[in-house]
């Protein structure tokens, strides 16, 4: 497991002073941002999850206490993630020319203008996304996550399980998707600005585990041969980051009753995730035995606030608001999903 590099700041986590944690994130460094906490995306996720409720059928009733997520359990298996990619070829689902519009996939009916050549989804970009980026992201996640596998086919609650803009084949409702623990509907439409992709959950099973989700990977960001190895890894890390949002790294899950608290740190009130595994990890990492939990990003802008670890402290963690280059999968993210 890669580790977080910002150990120089670890001792400061205990402090309640007004000390400011300077870092590249505060010094004007640019990095891709995440839209997961923008109001329209949060409203859409909440609407879909409330409407869809639990899965149509119950999957492998769990005898464990971790919401169906099993780690190092005998019957656990690496998570099987299937991608449904109809919207990469469906007419009208993406930009095919620099005229017209395409779905933005932020909320039902919202459109984006196809007014830039980089917004056009061609066969090369489809291949990169389907054969390079997404499979590598799944391989990375399977290194860390094992779950109680779905028995039988995974069935969606309806063809609008992820809203009206994402295409859900009728067979996913009637027959279901075989050999999958999580199905993600993938689109590629422009995302103007510095966001590479965004994603969210659509439907959960009876244990609270996400079983259907959606992702839009910005067309203008899809490259491969013309970029270096670090840039390629950054695209893979972005896909991992977004799938982890689908799996449960989100403000909705962070702030459920009993999972968080507020505390005064560095002269301000911060929100902290306090689940057992998260608290244990951050205390060991910081060397602070009284630390309440892990701070959550509180930047008051529409995007990173709420569903990410505090980037000033956990800059290289894969679920920090913006990447520091390493995208480490740490005990923060693993521990929270375990809990």
TrEMBL record:
It is found in: Membrane. It comes from the Eukaryota. Residues 1-24 form the signal peptide. Zn(2+) binds at residues 241, 245, 308. It catalyses: Preference for hydrophobic residues at P1 and P1' and basic residues at P2' and P3'. A model nonapeptide is cleaved at -Ala-Tyr-|-Leu-Lys-Lys-. Binds 1 zinc ion per subunit. Pfam families: Peptidase_M8 (PF01457). Its EC number is 3.4.24.-. The active site is at 242. GO terms for cellular component: cytoplasm; membrane. GO terms for biological process: cell adhesion; proteolysis. Belongs to the peptidase M8 family. This is Leishmanolysin-like peptidase.
């Amino acid at each position: 497991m890669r580790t977080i590099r910002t150990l120089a700041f670890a001792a400061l986590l205990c402090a309640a002073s007004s000390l400011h944690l300077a870092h590249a994130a505060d010094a004007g460094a640019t990095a891709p941002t995440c839209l997961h906490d923008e109001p329209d995306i949060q409203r859409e996720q909440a609407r879909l999850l409330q409407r869809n409720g639990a899965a149509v059928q119950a999957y492998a009733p769990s005898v464990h206490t971790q919401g169906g997520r099993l780690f190092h359990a005998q019957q656990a298996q690496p998570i099987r993630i299937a991608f449904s990619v109809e919207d990469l070829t469906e007419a009208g689902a993406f930009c095919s020319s620099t005229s017209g519009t395409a779905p933005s996939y932020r909320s039902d009916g919202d459109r984006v203008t196809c007014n830039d050549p980089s917004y056009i989804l061609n066969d090369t970009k489809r291949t990169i996304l389907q054969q390079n980026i997404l499979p590598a992201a799944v391989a990375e996640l399977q290194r860390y996550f094992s779950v109680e596998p779905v028995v039988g086919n995974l069935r969606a609650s309806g063809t609008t399980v992820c809203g009206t803009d994402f295409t859900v084949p009728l067979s996913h409702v009637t027959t279901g998707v075989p050999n999958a623990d999580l199905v993600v509907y993938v689109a590629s439409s422009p995302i103007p600005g510095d966001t590479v992709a965004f994603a969210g959950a659509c439907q959960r099973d009876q244990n609270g585990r996400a079983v259907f989700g959606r992702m839009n990977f910005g067309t203008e960001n899809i490259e491969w041969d013309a970029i270096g190895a670090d840039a390629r890894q950054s695209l893979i890390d972005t896909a991992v980051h977004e799938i982890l949002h689908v799996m449960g790294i989100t403000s909705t899950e962070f702030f459920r009753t009993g999972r968080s608290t507020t505390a005064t740190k560095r002269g301000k009130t911060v929100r902290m995730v306090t689940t057992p595994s998260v608290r244990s990890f951050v205390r060991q990492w910081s060397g602070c035995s009284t630390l309440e939990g892990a701070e959550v990003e509180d930047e008051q802008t529409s995007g990173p606030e709420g569903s990410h670890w505090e980037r000033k402290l956990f800059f290289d963690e894969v679920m920090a608001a913006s990447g520091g280059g390493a995208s480490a999968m740490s005990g923060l993210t693993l521990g929270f999903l375990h809990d």
